[in-house]
Design goal:
2 domains, Alpha-Beta Plaits, eight-stranded mixed beta sheet, Aminopeptidase, 25% strand
Length: 389
């Protein structure tokens, strides 16, 4: 199978180059979605568009008898950042860049679709899911709201992601939690603003925020088990306009990452406790909200074993990292895994890490990635329908 992908490599790389030149951010992936849909149609694969706004789904029925419906997923969107990779097929859109490798993931899944289309003597049905807006952590829910699994009732679902640092050509398979939960944290503090020369006539919301952030971080080191993964990071703080006026409002925004729902709940409680204490000390009112939340990307045991079996066969046992250490990054693929059993795994490559301005997806790993996806589908689709493997 990998030899087939190697012989097709020039065309497959041309697909990646086209996608890379035209990066589009979440829910604006119109050119990318049209390109993917056109390639699926060229392959005589049943094609559905507009699922989750800009999502695309391809459906391919095998000719080898009845079997199970298995979903394979890739992401369409790029990042709002400037590319500095220097490759000849660099981004043609200023301030947008495929800096996480979604161009490579989409190409890998299209490549698997091309192989299966050319070799249709398999059992079951392949569902190729091209998801929008992963970077916004919103695209999976949008597809679900459009009835993804009602229209295409997958029995299992799989996704892969490149991972610089794992080792080129290696496959990493987390046993359970692959990626952290993510809470978009927004905090608004309200106060009675006043002149800087007379702080006693109002409340100092900036001082209150400084106390809040430092007290929260200090307290978390004491209440969280040091063996658990849990982090709160604030990336934005905005307040005031004049140098001598204490403002009446301050906004903090940040992110919460954990690998366990119990830790996540602890952090949520501590955020409120520190807010209550800050209100008592400084007289400000504090509102806490979570505009966007995704759970832990939790793999299912039987599907992990399925990935390991295929990976060991294709890459060799020495190139497979079982029980791969989970990352603190997050993915809305977690929403799919809450609905359907499946697994999320990694493919190693060299070079800068994802979201670095010089990152580039290594096309050398496309044959392995596409082989993994196609073989995984064939293996799982051929299982008896009553199996919970």
């Amino acid at each position: 199978m990998r030899n087939w992908f190697t012989t097709q490599r020039p065309e497959l790389e041309s697909w990646l180059h086209t996608i890379h030149r035209h990066p589009e951010t979440g829910f604006d992936e119109n050119h990318t979605a049209a390109f993917v849909a056109a390639r699926l149609q060229d392959l005589a694969i049943e094609t559905h568009t507009g699922i989750g706004k800009t999502g695309v789904v391809g459906v391919l029925h095998g000719t080898g008898g009845t079997g199970r419906m298995i979903g394979l997923r890739a992401e369409l969107d790029a990042l709002p950042m400037q590319e500095c990779s220097g490759v000849p097929y660099h981004s043609r859109i200023d301030g947008k860049f495929h800096g996480c490798g979604h161009d490579g993931h989409t190409t890998t899944l299209l490549s698997a679709a091309a192989y299966l289309s050319a070799h249709r003597n398999f059992a079951g049905t392949a569902v190729f899911i091209f998801q929008p807006a992963e970077e916004l952590l919103s695209g999976a829910e949008a597809m679900l709201k459009d009835g993804l699994f009602e229209r295409f009732p997958c029995e299992e679902i799989y996704a892969l992601h490149n991972l610089p640092g794992l080792g080129k050509g290696k496959v990493g398979v987390p046993a359970q939690g692959a990626l952290a939960s993510a809470d978009h944290l927004e905090i608004i503090m309200h106060a009675q603003g006043t002149h800087g020369s007379a702080p006693h006539t109002g409340q100092d919301v900036i001082l209150a925020a400084a106390h809040y952030v430092s007290s929260l971080q200090q307290s978390l080191t004491r209440i969280l088990d040091s063996r658990d993964s849990g982090v709160v990071s604030f990336g934005s703080i905005h307040a005031g306009h004049a140098n001598n006026i204490l403002p009446d409002e301050l906004k903090l925004s940040g992110t919460i990452r954990t690998h366990a729902e119990s830790v996540r709940a602890q952090i949520h409680r501590q955020l409120q406790l520190v807010a209550d204490a800050t209100t008592t000390l400084y007289g400000v009112s504090i509102e806490i909200s979570y505009p966007n939340q995704v759970p832990v990307t939790m793999n299912h045991p039987s599907q992990v074993e399925a990935v390991l079996a295929v990976a060991r066969n294709l890459a060799g046992a020495e190139h497979v990292v079982a029980n791969c250490r989970p990352l603190m990054a997050s993915e809305d693929f977690s929403h799919f895994l809450q609905r359907v059993p499946g697994a999320y795994f990694f493919m190693g490559q060299d070079g800068p890490y994802c979201h670095h301005p010089s990152f580039i997806f290594d096309t050398d790993i496309i044959p392995l990635g596409a082989s993994l996806m196609a073989s995984l589908f064939k293996q799982q689709a051929a299982l008896p329908a009553t199996s919970n493997a």
